[in-house]
Amino acid sequence: MAKRGTCDRKGTGRAARSFWEKPDKQEVGINVSDATNEAGGLLDGIPMLRNRYRLERIHRGYSSDHKYMVNDHEGNPQYVLRTYSIQKEKDKENEFKMLQRMEEIGVRCTKPIESGVLPSLGLGYMIVSYIEGEEASEALPFLAEKEQYDIGVQAGLELRKMHQIPCTDDDVGAWHERMTAKYDRNRAEYAKCGIAIEEESRLLSFIDGNLHLMKNRPNLFQHDDYHVGNLIVKDGAFSGVIDFNRYDWGDPIHEFVKAGMFSAEVSVPFCMGQIRGYHDCNEPGDEFWRLYSLYLAMTLVSSVVWILRVRPEELDSMMGKIRKVLDDHDHFERIVPKWYRK
């Protein structure tokens, strides 16, 4: 029987300022102006909310969903409301069911409250519980390194719980087939986009030489956006996970890509804790790092394609993150990033 490790903090390194900006917010009551007709329609159309709450629009993130804080009339947050095109209802039903499953297995995350459709508005909606606290991206830089590390350990443990759930949908193809096809599409788009990653030949050669590692990897539940912007911290401790709208199925190691791409900019101690916590407070093995570095390298290519499609004005920022990852891995001459200390 393997001996459990101890989650002692070692070599935690730097803690950088968050790259996320604070949201613009707009609060509306029951008597709304023309500019807030959707909010008024939601308050009228959802019986649970009618005459009891106020909606505060959250302008944040890249999702096409609209998000609202649901406050009582004294301004205290009670729930979070997401609305989306009614054409997405089937996918959102599945997301709601996955949140129910998370609750069943004890994951500390937003709890599903209610979902439905509003045909008159052409919208579906989902109401989930509000987790008190602030995003880890904002809280971590102001905490001691040990607190950052301990929050990371808890985040890793919660992620491990999620990965208990296997894919039971026969229509979901093998992980390596789906990922290889996706990478081929992204690489083709990247080749004609007019933007070049520094020393791209080394990057692409590393990817090509390691794609075979994805064969026979499992199809398990993936949050698929697990980073410090989707984790909540309260009073210096981990509080919960939010935003499951990108969930998918595949290799659980792929979840750690966001640690290297984004979370490490905010808190290296957190990232180290997340990785060790996930591995029962032991050091991860060579297989983890080989797959982690492969997925991170593939993400650099897809990130260029994605940012040009979605937020081209943020290209310079994205290229800065890509250069940082390349430096962390010496252009993938090393599979363990420089910021990780054993």
From TrEMBL:
MF terms in GO: transferase activity
Species classification: Bacteria, Bacillati, Bacillota, Bacilli, Bacillales
Pfam families xref list: APH
UniProt entry tagged with the keyword Transmembrane helix: yes
Span of domain Aminoglycoside phosphotransferase: 55-288
Record-linked InterPro entries: Aminoglycoside_PTrfase, Kinase-like_dom_sf
Protein name: Aminoglycoside phosphotransferase
Keywords for this protein: Membrane, Transferase, Transmembrane, Transmembrane helix
Transmembrane segments: 289-308
Superkingdom, taxonomy of origin: Bacteria
